[in-house]
Design goal:
Blueprint: E1 18-23, E2 28-35, E3 43-47, E4 52-56, H1 60-63, H2 66-71, H3 75-88
Antiparallel strand pairs: 1-2, 2-3, 3-4
Protein name: Cytoplasmic protein
Organism: Oceanobacillus picturae
Length: 89
C-alpha cells in the first residue's frame, strides 16, 4: 500500500475447509464449508459455482427461505440443498 489508505486491520488466519460435491436431481453442487468463528453453531457455506455464501446453522434450515434468495436457487433446488446441508452440518 502506497500510503493512500489507513489500514485498520490486517490479519492472516489458517482455517479448516471441507469441500463437498454432490449430484442432486437438478444439478451438481460444489460447496466449501467452514465453521463460523464468532458463532460455533453456524457454518459458512460457500456455493463454489455461483460464488455466493450463506452463514447458516442446522436449526436455520427448517424455518427460513434464505437459501433460495442468497444462493440464487429455485425453490426445488433450495429444498434439495437444504436437505443435503441438514445431513452434513
Amino acid at each position: 500500500m502506497g500510503g493512500k489508505f489507513e489500514i485498520l486491520k490486517d490479519e492472516t488466519k489458517t482455517k479448516e475447509l471441507r469441500y463437498i460435491s454432490f449430484m442432486g436431481n437438478y444439478q451438481r453442487y460444489d460447496f466449501a464449508l467452514m465453521n463460523h468463528e464468532e458463532d460455533p453453531d453456524k457454518t459458512v457455506v460457500i456455493h463454489l459455482q455461483k460464488n455466493r455464501f450463506i452463514v447458516v446453522g442446522k436449526e436455520d434450515l427448517d424455518n427460513n427461505r434464505d437459501v433460495e434468495h442468497i444462493l440464487h436457487e429455485t425453490a426445488m433446488e433450495a429444498d434439495e440443498v437444504r436437505a443435503f446441508l441438514k445431513e452434513v452440518l
